[in-house]
Structures are given as C-alpha cells and as structure tokens.
Amino acid sequence: MKEKVIFTTALCLSAMTPMMAQNITGKVMNTKGEPLAFANVVLLNRTDSAFVKGAVSGEAGSFVIDSSCNGGIIKVTSVGYKTICKDCTGENMGIIKMEEDSETLGEVVVKSSMPKTILKNGGMTTTIVGSVLEKAGTMENLLDRIPNVSAQNGSIKVFGRGEPVIYINGRQMRDKSELDHLHSDNIKSVEVITNPGARYAASTKAVIRITTKKIQGEGFGFDAKTTGEYDEKKNFGGFGQLNMNYRKNGLELGAYAFGARQYQPDNKDLQQKTYLDKTWNQKSEIRQVGIINSSLIIQ
C-alpha cells in the first residue's frame, strides 16, 4: 500500500512540473540597483509584434507573465526610462536594467513630475495632471503608458483580462471614436480595475475609468478630422468625423457624425478551356487528348 501511495505522489509531481514551467519571471531595476514598480512587461509575437500577454512589476520590481516564451520578444516600458526589448529565451529573464531617458526628463522634469500610481478600492489609479504623461499626446499613446494596459493599433487590452469597458467622466463609452477627441493634457487621472465588483455587469472583465480636467467656458464647440487616400489606379477613399459639444450651466451635451468611402475593386475571374480532340499520331496511331487552360482577369 505504501509503494502505491509513493508512486501516485511522484506521478502528480511529474504532471505539475511542466505546468509550473509556463511562467516567465524576472525583475525590473534601474541602473542604481533600485527596483522599479509599475513597469509594463509585455510578451510580443516575433512575426508581427502583436500583444500576447503582459504583467506589471510589483513594489520589489518582480513580475510574472503567465505564458511560455514561444520564441517571442519581451518589451519593458516605464515612464521616464528607455524602452527595452529582449529575446525571450527562457522562463527566467533575470534582472532587466532600465536606463533613464534623458531626452524626456531633460525638458519635462523641471515643470512636471513622474506620474503617481496608487492601489485603491481594487483598482490602480494613475495621476496624469502635473506629470510627464501630460505630454503623451493621443489617448492611445497615453493608455499604452498606463501600468497594466496595452494600447496599439486601435486595440486596448488590460493584462490578463482582455478588452475593458471604458468610462469617461462616469459615462460608459459607446464608440472608440470618443477617445479621438481627447488629449493627454486634458486628462486628470486613469483608473484600471481588474476585478470589477457587483456594480458592473457580470460579463465585464476589466474597467478603465478616465477622468478629464474640468472644462472651462460655456457654449458650442466642435472639432473635425479627415483622412484620404488615392491609389495608383486613381481610386479615392477616405474617412471624415465631426465631434460637437455644447456646455451650459454645468450641463454638457455631445454628438458626433462620421462618414467613410472605401474603394474595393470588383474583380472577376473568367476562365476559358480549349479542348483539342481527334489528334492522331501517324506512326503509332495513338489517340491523344490535350487540354489548354487560359485565364483572364477583368477589373
């Protein structure tokens, strides 16, 4: 009986070993040997640099990505430091040292401070106002620098939770175009909630709450943007969007309109088959049948 128990235990341990080896671990530090907290560590696909999985470093600078390398690339970013990309060759990435970005700090740090991120009410809140993140530019650039968030090519994801539900000043965002007319210098704070409570729908896996600065002045305002393209066949396409808002006595109303034109060639594939029949070889009198295929593409 004892031998059977020992055998079963050994079998369980051997089954758990490959599962435990799926994690990518490491530690993020600066050149002074100090740990860097809230640094984004992302695993990217080598072929197209697509986001695979990510993690954020803790107070001691340590991180754990729940994935195997699969020949990917590890990208580490932290505000005020140069971005580092390393080949992911094993489960233990060791110590990753980050160098200060002198170009960013040299001009901005005098007037702005580093952003502050705090853990509160099951979420992670990053203060934007008064920090170097005010200079990030677009909302996609800003969100990509927020701990626990990846934003690229119009796709926004929270590490380990997938696509989040986004709120702007307490109102749920219905269309991603609403982010287009926001700018980093008008953002007060960004809160990332990875474990939404009962106040959100059961299907909600993650929440990003964006709070803007208080807008001064009243009346009607608008902004617009357009894009266009013209190919070698003289086909024209483009996109246009108009954002409008009206403020009066603390009430703010907003609306937007957009239109797009995209040219898609109507390709037609016409195939023609020619059959050669009753072809004789005078010496062997063997009948041969040949088939010639030709195709013509009409655009």
Automatic annotation (TrEMBL):
Key words, A-Z: Signal
Domain of life of the source: Bacteria
Keyword Amino-acid biosynthesis appears in the UniProt entry: no
Pfam families, per database record: CarbopepD_reg_2
Signal peptide (UniProt feature, chain positions): 1-21
Name of protein: Carboxypeptidase-like regulatory domain-containing protein
Organism: Segatella sinensis
Lineage: Bacteria, Pseudomonadati, Bacteroidota, Bacteroidia, Bacteroidales
